Amino acid sequence: MNKKINVKEYLDPNISSEEMRKIRLGMISELNKCKYDNVEYNDYQILEIKFGLKDNLDVSVYADPKYDCKQMNEIRLGLNNDLDVSIYADPKYNNNQMYQIRIGLREHLDISLYNNPSYNYNQMSQIKFGLKNNIDASLYANPNYNHKQMEQIRFGLEDDLDVSVYADPKYDCGQMFLIREGLNNDLDVSVYADPRFNWRQMCEIRDGLKDNLDVSIYADTKFNEKQMDEIRMGLKNNLDVSVYVDPKYDSSQMYEIRKGLLYNLNDNCKNMFNIVCK
To answer: CA–CA separation, 208 vs 20, rounded Å?
Structure first.
């Protein structure tokens, strides 16, 4: 990179200025040539290598056709920051995974918890956030959790909740969210912390608990979420829901029965009001 043009090559008064110009430009072209200028690399890869050479980096670490230009970029940026790029300079990591490892190294995190190609970059990100926030990210550093499940566990740990209640791959992120929210609200989540309930059913049971209703009446997988809603609404209106708490009634039928009971209740209240007024 420190080579100079040898003007002696054309230092001759018999050479015209135009010829001198051609010789000079030819020399510049040769100086600008890189040993990596070959068909093995595309233009973007060569550019990354030249950027590294310009910064006096050891480009041999990434000057290999097995890395695409984006991977080369992540390795080059790591070298620029004096990081131990050997940890992620491996084509088994895509550029996004390399990014998460590079940022972890830059922030002095224990990246050993996630420098595993089994994790996609979103999963790596969730583990990195946990390490950054000083929580025990090992509780969810498991490839069996997708990044949304990891996020729900991370949120629970950040709120000092007992995440063991829902830190299980059998719960999807929606179920985890509802259990976590229940814990945050001091609800007895054991009533619905069951993977057999989908998140909509869990939502109906949670809402019943919030209203201090006897959710045991409908916290049963034999009821779908719409049936649960009709029973919950009946309980909320102080109706005798025993009349229709039966899975043989679909939610539309339950609705009609509930409305009938509600009408009777309102009518009775009206009659009582009239008697009192007399």
So the answer is: 90
pLDDT at position 274 is 45
Query: Residue 270: what pLDDT?
Result: 46
Q: Which residues contact 242 (CB under 8 A, 6 or more apart)?
A: none
C-alpha neighbours within 13 Å on the C-beta side of residue 169: 8
| Of the residues 62, 81, 108, the one at which a domain ends | 108
Average pLDDT across the chain, whole number? 90
- Tell whether 52 and 67 lie within a shared domain: yes
Count of positions (residues) in the chain: 278
Tell me: do 62 and 91 sit in the same domain: yes
**pLDDT band at residue 265, thresholds of 50, 70 and 90?**
low
Looking at the structure, tell me whether residues 55 and 81 fall in a common domain.
Answer: yes
Which residue range forms the structural domain that includes residue 14?
1-33
- Decide if 59 is inside a domain: yes
d(CA 241, CA 115): 55
SS3 208: helix
Same domain for 45 and 91? yes
73 touches 48 (CB < 8 A): yes
Using one digit for the tens of pLDDT, what is the confidence trace for 118-154? 999 999 999 999 999 999 999 999 999 999 999 999 9
pLDDT for 2 equals 53
- Cα separation, 202 vs 189, in Å, equals 9
Phi, psi of 67 (to 5 degrees): -95, 135
253 in a domain, yes or no?
no
Average pLDDT over residues 234-256: 95
